[in-house]
């Protein structure tokens, strides 16, 4: 019977065998020694799972009751059995990998299942059928895992994506390959321990690797999607209140939080000009985040004020899409101030201010002291490259009137990292620099 099964049906039975085997194995394995004894027990339980129960095997009956497991559950079950059966498992030092996986799956599960039950208007599960967001997001996390040495984390995510690509399960939704109720509950029970293990390791190196990898994956996929499916790019990938816009807003909001924390933390150690400019950067982050989500208009459901209905290009509450009349001509503020203006400011920042600052940095020259007085976070090399790659990629490779959304998305991520981990980070440290920063 098994020999005649399709691969998806066989995977369902394998999942059921693992549920039965794991449940029984967990109860009795502690009394057996690792190695031959536990391996023999696991094999015997797997055989028992396939023994007849009426007209069919236990596993077939259980499959009808529980449904199929996700590939994540299957792989984690195999890992668990391996760790318990082998005398000296090579997985003993992989706790960081699995802690990261538990946190990721918990976040996705908490977002997915309540929405699936109707607690939110956004159909998150439906995005798994054509995973233009979830797919590149998993790819970016996989790349960051490899870069950071999280090989088991990356291997499991890769297995999930490859399984989806080859259709090894009965479902054609990527979420069903990544999650099921069993693994979600399991991960949620381990969130506290996983966060405690990872919290102290979230340094600059890790944060930059994750943000750059996921941002790059989504940016490259945007290039691909804008060419092969322009409608999906325009109406799904960069849709209003979608992931791209939400990440942009969250990145700018994080800029506000970082600058606000510095303002509070250094209020007794810095001069008024330094604190004023830090406060201005915090307000700029708040303004950018608010504008990106139309100041919560769609979240809270209020109507657009009459002025913005008449003058805002998108008929939403916000300043950056205003169209105003100057000398009888209509001027789009988004193009003039937030387009041309920001572009010129970025050119001055990267190609004039940064070289001058670097040249005088060793001797703490007058330009360095001036920049430090104004509390301007200067870019590191990786940030400079990031800004240039974002602009070149979007402007040269994405042919869509909505490509600006990707500039905002990727640019906001680089800007966040620029502010959080600047070249001149010493001026934001808890050190009294008042003698040098008057």
Q: Could you please describe the fold and organization of this structure?
A:
By secondary structure, this protein is mainly alpha-helical. Among the domains are: 68 residues, no CATH class; 226 residues, no CATH class. Helix content is 67%, strand content 3%. It contains 20 helices and four strands. The strands form two sheets. It has a two-stranded antiparallel ribbon. The mean pLDDT is 84.
- Which structural class do the helices and strands define? mainly alpha
- Describe the main β-sheet briefly: 2 strands, antiparallel
| Termini Cα gap | 82 Å
Number of helices: 20
The radius of gyration is 27 Å
Unreliable segments (pLDDT under 50, ≥5 consecutive)? none
Tell the overall outline: globular
Helix share bin: 55-70%
Total count of strands: 4
Strand-residue proportion: under 5%
Strand order of the largest sheet: 1-2
Could you state the order of secondary-structure elements as H and E?
HHEEHHHHHHHHHHHHHHEEHHHH
Mean pLDDT: 84
